[in-house]
Protein: Phosphoribosylglycinamide formyltransferase
Organism: Streptomyces camponoticapitis
Amino acid sequence: ARLVVLVSGSGTNLQALLDAVAADPRGYGARIVAVGADRDSIAGLERAERAGLPTFVCRVRDHATREEWDAALTEATAAYEPDLVVSAGFMKIVGKRFLARFGGRFINTHPALLPSFPGAHGVRDALAYGAKVTGCTVHFVDDGVDTGPVIAQGVVEVRDEDHEDGGVALHERIKDVERRLLVDVVGRLARHGYRIEGRKVTIQ
Ligand code: GRF
């Protein structure tokens, strides 16, 4: 399967996918054909370039409207003919056009156990709530914010001392689990195929 990965930051989830492909190019079942971002000068893009992959940047502020940005992101992504698109720390909500084109094959990873703590601050919000366990969710993207069908989740315990650094160490422990979960899920989706029936996702 051909993957396009979208990033906004450090790209450690992208790196985990790159490493999985490099470790077993045939066996993994998927390969990354391009990496896209909504901003430039980020470590995620450097990781892609280091791996010799084509990259594209689609910034909201370079477009007159959000719809035009969405159309540009859709075209830039579609140019690489992906079977799956992975939002790996991509901090933008895509629009109608993107979903019409990639719905059902666009997955996201979120650093909380959805439906708890959706949105941009999943780690901080779980901590502030006083949750004793949190984790990560890999899910298909629909037109809500972190509301699409869940594919897999991983659990991480919150420690008392997590309240002292505002969730930095907790997020690192979540990302540890998240990277492994994402690599596993993407590989299985690519190798086995899958069905989405309502909210139920079955990997075949
Ligand atoms: C991940 O925890 C992802 O869920 C999120 O931001 C983090 C991205 O990390 N919302 P990286 O860019 O893959 O290192």
Remarks:
- The chain is about 35% helix and 25% strand.
